[in-house]
Q: What sequence folds into this?
């Protein structure tokens, strides 16, 4: 981290205010009905001070530990995706005019967003969606317009969740790029502060505007210690060597039947995944039949309609739909976008109602293949 | 912050989901459930609507929605666009109720094209099943218009019944006037049917194909394409010279909605036309 600064909690409040004055809608973590959600915050008072989460396959609990740490939880169910790539976005309005109709493009009028509290794995997820929505001949204009105006304050992780495996992908627990400002939160008996570094010119000028103290060596050491401890606490892992080929070569592996017996095809994993980008469109008219709208909404490859065409359905079985999701995420994504679709955040494990753990499923496929190759049965 | 490469990337790019307006000129019923829309194409900045054989449009019916439909008209006549459409769902039913002068929305043309230039100097085998003849009709128009540039032109076509044959008048014309070999088969004949009965793959035995000199273009139901490709390979046609056009659910047509994935391929932008080696390993797998 170049030129580290030491921000007090008051400095962070000044940053929030300054961003608001600059016209940003400031989005950060809040405790809402026992779950952390990313939502509009007015001040640092809205941050979930003293809340920690406990996560396991199919399990999430938020508890107050009596502390003062703002960012002591690991990850909330929803990622920043819903602010950049809206769950529902009106694309086009059509107005009937006799035998013809007019077409108008619905422009996004949303304020620019400033995110406070983006985790390193989430920064990576955003950079993956940047590629998805900009690498082809056609771009997602709404997404890119939101991203171009987007300001991000990352917070390095101080608590590893049971389902975290970012270290397998090298996407955490420390933010390396993709932020304007990165913070490491330090809380001990006598003090509560942040070690901060800028990742962009606008991040740098915002820090300069606040004018915080330079971090001393002990502060920087403390920040490194927080990150090292978090990294050491991550127990889950995914062996990503040869993973794309392993999955594309094993579409007939019997383990897919085993997953299919457990998978409810509810699509939770795709909703909480910070990189999943599939969408569908909804066309509707008003009651007069004179005005029609075309709305894009998030879709999931687990729905029964996803691969349906007039003549039939290409993915009827739960097995094929789970396989599509996992193989896309970890294998074909690499061929499509030059990067894996997984960042190791573990949301799909936490929010799977039956606790399916993709690292275990991949392990079972890999183990089965290794057995066969060794002549076992 | 956003990567500057992405931030500055083509801020002027077309708005991918915005349709252009086009006017229906005529609706021709080809069979009981299949019709052709003849359309005055949209004009963008005064330029005509250019497309390549094999490409498709997203066709929008007011208030009902869009459907991905291949273009079935002659690419050398861009002022008269045709879409041959099987009436099966809500959008294709709404489109079937259109009349002369009605407006539709069009986005496109999208996707890859049939390899017509690669076929120059070769014999060309076109194998179509059912509505699969529609995306191949632009190829047939092109081959016949540039007849002397190609060797034999073989058109194999299968439909469910004689009443389900598309473009019946043109099929006659092609076989008579233009020195093309047209062989037709149906799954079930009727009392008037004197032609072949059975699947398209059964027709290859009537042709003495010089397979090293041939390029094949195949479109039809997936099972028909799978067996046709196998038969062509068995007869000695190299996989690299077999092309096929795939179908999947599509919502955006431009590689952003994820619906049309076929393994790592997006049918909308990597296809719909593929050479067999690009997708052969996927064709055998169920529910990919």
A:
């Amino acid at each position: 981290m170049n030129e580290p600064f030491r921000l007090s909690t008051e400095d962070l409040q000044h940053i929030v205010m300054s961003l608001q004055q600059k016209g940003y809608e400031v989005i950060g973590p809040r405790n809402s009905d026992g779950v952390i959600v990313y939502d509009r915050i007015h001040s640092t008072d809205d941050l979930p001070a003293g809340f920690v989460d406990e996560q396991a396959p199919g399990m999430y609990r938020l508890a107050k530990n009596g502390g003062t740490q703002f960012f002591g939880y690991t990850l909330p169910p929803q990622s920043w995706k819903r602010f950049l790539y809206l769950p529902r976005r009106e694309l086009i309005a059509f107005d009937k005019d006799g035998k013809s109709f007019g077409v108008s493009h619905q422009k996004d009028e949303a304020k620019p967003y400033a995110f406070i509290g983006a985790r390193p794995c989430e920064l990576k997820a955003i950079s993956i969606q940047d590629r998805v929505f900009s690498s082809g001949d056609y771009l997602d204009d709404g997404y890119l317009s939101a991203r171009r105006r987007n300001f991000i304050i990352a917070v390095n992780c101080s608590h590893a969740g049971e389902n975290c495996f970012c270290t397998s992908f090298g996407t955490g627990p420390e933010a390396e790029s993709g932020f304007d400002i990165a913070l490491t939160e330090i809380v001990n008996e006598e003090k509560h502060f942040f070690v901060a570094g800028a990742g962009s010119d606008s991040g740098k000028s915002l820090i300069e505007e606040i004018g915080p103290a330079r971090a001393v060596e002990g502060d920087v050491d403390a920040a490194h210690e927080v990150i090292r401890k978090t990294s050491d606490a991550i127990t889950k892992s995914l062996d990503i060597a040869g993973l794309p080929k392993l999955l594309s070569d094993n579409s007939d592996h019997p383990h897919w039947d085993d997953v299919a017996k457990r998978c409810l095809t509810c699509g939770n994993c795709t909703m909480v995944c910070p990189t999943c980008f599939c969408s569908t469109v909804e066309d509707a008219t008003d009651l007069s039949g004179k005005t029609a709208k075309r709305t894009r909404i998030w879709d999931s490859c687990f729905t029964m309609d996803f691969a349906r065409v007039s003549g039939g359905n290409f993915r009827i079985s739960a097995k094929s739909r789970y396989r599509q999701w996992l193989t896309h995420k970890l294998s074909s994504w690499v061929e499509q976008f030059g990067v894996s679709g997984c960042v190791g955040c573990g949301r799909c494990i936490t929010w799977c109602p039956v606790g399916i753990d993709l690292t275990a499923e991949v392990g079972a496929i890999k183990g089965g293949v290794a057995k066969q190759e060794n002549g076992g049965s | 912050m956003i990567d500057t490469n992405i931030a500055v990337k083509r801020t002027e790019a077309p708005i991918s989901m915005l349709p252009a307006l086009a006017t229906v000129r005529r609706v021709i019923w080809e069979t009981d459930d299949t019709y052709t829309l003849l359309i005055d194409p949209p004009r963008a900045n005064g330029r005509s609507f250019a497309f390549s054989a094999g490409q498709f449009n997203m066709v929008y019916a007011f208030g009902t929605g869009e459907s991905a439909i291949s273009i079935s008209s002659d690419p050398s006549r861009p002022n008269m666009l045709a879409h041959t459409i099987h009436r099966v769902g809500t959008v294709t039913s709404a489109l079937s109720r259109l009349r002369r002068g009605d407006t539709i929305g069009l986005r496109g043309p999208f996707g890859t094209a049939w390899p017509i230039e690669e076929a120059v100097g070769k014999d060309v085998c076109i194998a179509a099943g059912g509505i699969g003849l529609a995306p191949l009709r632009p190829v047939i128009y092109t081959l016949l218009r540039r007849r002397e540039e190609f060797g034999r032109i073989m058109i194999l076509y299968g439909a469910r019944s004689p009443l389900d044959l598309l473009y019946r008048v043109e099929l006659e014309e092609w076989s008579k006037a233009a020195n093309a070999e047209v062989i037709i088969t149906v799954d079930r004949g009727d009392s008037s049917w004197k032609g072949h009965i059975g699947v398209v793959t059964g027709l290859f035995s009537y042709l003495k194909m010089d397979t090293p000199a041939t390029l094949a273009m195949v479109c039809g139901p997936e099972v028909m394409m799978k067996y046709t490709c196998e038969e062509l390979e068995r007869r000695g046609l190299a996989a690299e010279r077999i092309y096929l056009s795939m179908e999947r659910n599509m919502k955006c047509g431009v590689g952003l909605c994820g619906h049309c994935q076929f393994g790592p391929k997006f049918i909308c932008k990597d296809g719909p036309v593929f050479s067999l080696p690009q997708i052969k390993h996927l064709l055998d797998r169920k529910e990919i």
